[in-house]
Amino acid sequence: MSSLYLLALDASSSACSAALLRQQGSRRECLARFEMTPRAHTRRLMPMVDDILAEANISTQQLDAVAFGRGPGSFTGLRIAAGAAQGLAFGLDRPLLGISTLEALALQAHRRYHFRHVVTALDARMGEIYAATWHCLNDTLSLQSDEMVVAPANFRLPAEQTDWVGVGSGFVLWDDFALSLQTNMSQHLTDLEPRAEEMAWLAARDLEAGLGQAAHEAQPVYLRNDVAWKKPA
Question: What pTM was estimated for this model as a whole?
Answer without folding.
Answer: 0.94
